[in-house]
Amino acid sequence: MPVQCSSCSEKRAVLKRPKTGHSLCKECFFWTFEEEIHQTIVSAKLFKPGESVGIAASGGKDSTVLAHVMKVLNERYNYGLELMLLSVDEGITGYRDDSLETVKRNQQQYELPLKIVSYEELYGWTMDAIVKQVGLKNNCTFCGVFRRQALDRGAIMLKVGKICTGHNADDVAETVLMNVLRGDIARLRRCTAISTDSENEGVVPRCKPLKYAYEKEIVLYAYFKKLDYFSTECIYSPNAYRGYARTYLKDLESVRPSSIMDVIHSGENLSVREGVKMPVQGTCSRCGYISSQKLCKACVLLEGLNRGLPKLGIGKHHRFHDKILSQQPLTEEEERKLKAVDF
Amino acid sequence: MCQVDEDYRGEVERAAVPSVSKKCVKCKEAPAALVIRAGDAYCRLCFKDFFVHKFKAVLGKNRIIFPGEKVLLAVSGGPSSCSMLRQVQEGLSQKANKKLRFVPGIAYIDEGAAIGQSVEERQRTVAELQAVFQATGFPFYILPLEQVLDLPASVVATNPSPSEQPASAYKAAVGHFVETDGSNNFPTPQEPKKMLLPHVQESHTLQQLLGSVKTLTAREELLNTLRQHLLVHTARTEGYSKLMLGDSCTRLAVKLLTSISLGRGAQLAQDTGFSDSRYGDIILVRPMRDYSAKEIAYYNHLFTVPSVVIPSVDTKTVDKASIQRLTESFVTKLQADFPSTVSTIYRTSEKLQSACMKWSGAERCDRCLLCLCSLDTAVEEPSAFQATLLSDQLSGSKCLRGSAAETLRPNPGRPESPAPTGQCCSSAGGRDCGRPGSDGGCCSSAKLPETTRLKSLLCYSCALTIRDMSTVNHLPQYILSEAQRRQRRSQMREEISEFLLDDGDEGN
C-alpha cells in the first residue's frame, strides 16, 4: 500500500525524514528543508538586507547545499544579499584539488563570484608538507587553525560583511561531545552559538545557517535535487580524536533519531559556574589577529614548522611566546622535546 | 593527550612496569599491593588511608551534613553503595579519629518486578542483603518498588527550597554538638522488620506501566525517576533530611554524557554534582563521586566488603539497546585508550551550575513534573527546542504548503498551542500518518490529547521519555493527579492574569 505524504496528503511519499520519521513527497521535503533554514536565518537575524555574504565553499555536500539553498532563499524571500563563494586550498593532493573543481562548477552554475585562497600563498606551507613534518596524529590541529585564518583573510580580500559556513547539526553535536570529553569549558560555552561575535573590527563574523539541519537530510536534499558534489573523506583524518565523538553520535542517532537535536539543546542550556577561569580575548603581537595569548595559535604553529620543531603549538606553549617574540633560540632540552614526532 | 592544553613534559616516557619488589610510593617501606593510575603503587595500609581519607575529606570540605543529622543511605547492593556503607560504618565507629557525626539509616529498593524476577528470587536477594544490613546495626528499610504506586502527590509538588545556611551555621552546629556530647544519638539496633510482600496486583500494575514504555532508554529514565521519588518519600516520612547516593566517578562520567545525549544539559549540575537540592527539604548527596570504579573494586576486594550482584533492566543487553548502555560502553572503551577520559569528564561536571541559579530567587522557575528540575522549555528564538517544534509543525501537518509562505507560522513556536494534528503525528512516531482517504487531520482527534497537555508541564528530556510511552494512563496516580492540579491552576491563572498586579509566584 503506497504511503501518502504526511504533509500534503496528496502525493505518494518517496522518503522518510531522518529528523522526525515523517514520510514526505519530494516537493514537500524540499519545501520543509528550505523553510526550516529560512526560519533559522530569520529568527536568529543572521543577515541584514544589502549585506555582502561570503559562502565558505569546500566542494563537499554541506557547502554545495548551502550555496544552493542560500541562492534559492535569497531570491524567494528577497533577503537582498550579495552572495560570493570563498574557497580554501590546503594543498592536499588527490583530495582538495578534486573538490575545488566542484567549487568551480558551482560558481558557473550559480553565477557567483569565487575567490580561492591557498595555504601556500598565505603561510608558505601546504598540508602535504606539514604532514611530512608533523606526522599523522596532530595534523588536524594545523589544518583547522590555518583554515580559520585563511577564511578570514579571504573574506577581507573579498570585502564581505559576513561568512557563512556549512556546519550542520551533526557537526555542532559532535563538537559539544568532543569538548565535554576534552574538558574544554571555554569552547563548550561558545560552540553552540549560531554566529560569532562581531564586535572586533579585524575579524569577519561567521554564522551557520545549516545549524539545525541533519547531515542525512542534507544528503537527501542533494540527492533529490541532483546537486553534484565531491564526497571523499580527507585522507589525513582517520586518527583524529573527533572520530570517536562522531562514532558515538552516529550510534546515538541509530538508537534515538532525535539525539542530535537533544545534544544541541543540552549544549545551548549549559551554564558555567562563576569563578571558572575563562580566556580573555586580545590580539596577537605578531600578526594582529585575535588571540587569547600573546601570540596567536597560527603564528606559534608556523614558528614551529619553520624552525623544524613540529610539536611547538601542540600542548602548553605559552611559556615559549616570549622567546619566540624576541627571536631567542630555545635550549637544547626544549628543542629535543619539541622535535619528537610519533607516527 | 585528549585533554586540551595538556602538558607533555615528563609523560612521554613509558611508566615503569611494577614488579613484585616495588615499594609503596607513600610510605616507601611496605611492598606494593596494587597500582592505581599509571605509576602509583600503594601498599594495603596506605591505600586504606587514602581511601578513607577521601571520604572524610569530601564530606568535610562541603560541610553540608550537620552533626547529629539523620542521613538515609541509598544502597542498591552494588559495589559502590556497599563500599559507601562500609565507609559510614567505619567512620562512625568509636575508635576512628575524627569520627563522622551523623545518624545513618539504610534504604534498599527491591526492583524485582521491573526485571521480571519471581517472588522466590526476590526473597532470596532480600534475605542476603538483610543479613548485610543487620550486621551494621543501622535501621534499614526494604522497599519494594511497587510502593511507588501509592505515593502521595506531595512528592512531586514543588517545595520551597530552604534558605541557604551560612557557613557560620555549620561551625555553630559543630560546637553545640561537641558540648552536648552527641554519642547518645547513636542508632539503636532495630528489630528486623517483616518485609511486606507486595500484592500480586501491584506488581502487575507496575509491569504494565513499564510495558507501556516502548524504548529501553525511556524505561530506564522512568525507573530512575520513580526510584528517586520513592527514596525521597521514605526519607521524608522517616524523618531523614539528607539522602546519600553511592554513584562513583565512573558512573557519574557516564551519567554526564548520557544526560547530554538525552537533552538534560540544563540539569547537569544537579544530576551529577555533589549536592542536589531540587526536592527542597531533602538534599541528595554523592560522597563517592571522587572514587573511580577501579579503586572501589580494589578496596572491596582487599577489605572484603560484601556486595550482592543484582541484575537490572539493561543487564546482558547489546550495546545499542539504550542510550545509557551505549554511553557506558563508549566511555569504558575510550578510557582504555585514553586513561584520563573519566577524570576529565568529571572535572567538566565540577565547573557547571544549574541553569536556574542565574536568576535570583529559585522559586520563580517552574518545575518539571517528573524530575523536579527547572523547566528548560522557554521558547526563546532561536534554539534547538524551537527548531524541533518547527520541524514537527512543518512536516507533520497538512495545508501549510504553497505560496502563502508568510502565513505559515501563525504561532511562532509557542508550546501551549502546537497544531494538534502535528503533535499527534509526532506522538505516533510519525509512521504512516497518511492513510488513504483521510483529508482532515492525519490521525483521529481522539488520539491522546493527554500527552500533549502533559508535555507542557515537563522539561525537554522528560517530554522525550513520555513521547516513548504508548499511553500515559498507566503512570502512577500521584503523577497524574498532580498534573491535573497544575493544569487547573494554570487555567485559573490565565483567566485572572490581567488582574494580577504582582508577577511574583505565590507557589504553584
TrEMBL record, chain A:
Please name one Pfam family that this protein belongs to: ATP_bind_3
> Which keywords annotate this record?
ATP-binding, Cytoplasm, Nucleotide-binding, RNA-binding, Transferase, tRNA processing, tRNA-binding
The residues that the entry says bind ATP are A56, A57, S58, D62, V88, G166, D171
Which GO cellular component term is one of those annotated?
Answer: cytosolic tRNA wobble base thiouridylase complex
Q: Which gene encodes it?
A: ctu1
Please list the residue ranges annotated as the Cytoplasmic tRNA 2-thiolation protein 1 C-terminal domain. Answer: 282-312
Which InterPro entries does this UniProt record tie to the protein? CTU1-like_ATP-bd, CTU1_C, Ncs6/Tuc1/Ctu1, Rossmann-like_a/b/a_fold, TilS/TtcA_N, tRNA_thiolation_TtcA_Ctu1, UPF0021_CS
What's the main place this protein lives?
cytoplasm
- Where does it localize? Cytoplasm
UniProt function note = Plays a central role in 2-thiolation of mcm(5)S(2)U at tRNA wobble positions of tRNA(Lys), tRNA(Glu) and tRNA(Gln). Directly binds tRNAs and probably acts by catalyzing adenylation of tRNAs, an intermediate required for 2-thiolation. It is unclear whether it acts as a sulfurtransferase that transfers sulfur from thiocarboxylated URM1 onto the uridine of tRNAs at wobble position.
Q: Where is the tRNA(Ile)-lysidine/2-thiocytidine synthase N-terminal domain?
A: 53-234
Work out whether the entry's keyword set contains Nucleotide-binding. yes
- Has keyword tRNA processing? yes
The record ties this protein, via HAMAP family, to:
CTU1
Example GO molecular function: tRNA binding
Full protein name: Cytoplasmic tRNA 2-thiolation protein 1
Q: Copy the pathway line from the protein's UniProt record.
A: tRNA modification; 5-methoxycarbonylmethyl-2-thiouridine-tRNA biosynthesis
Its family? Answer: Belongs to the TtcA family. CTU1/NCS6/ATPBD3 subfamily.
- EC code: 2.7.7.-
Domain of life from the UniProt record = Eukaryota
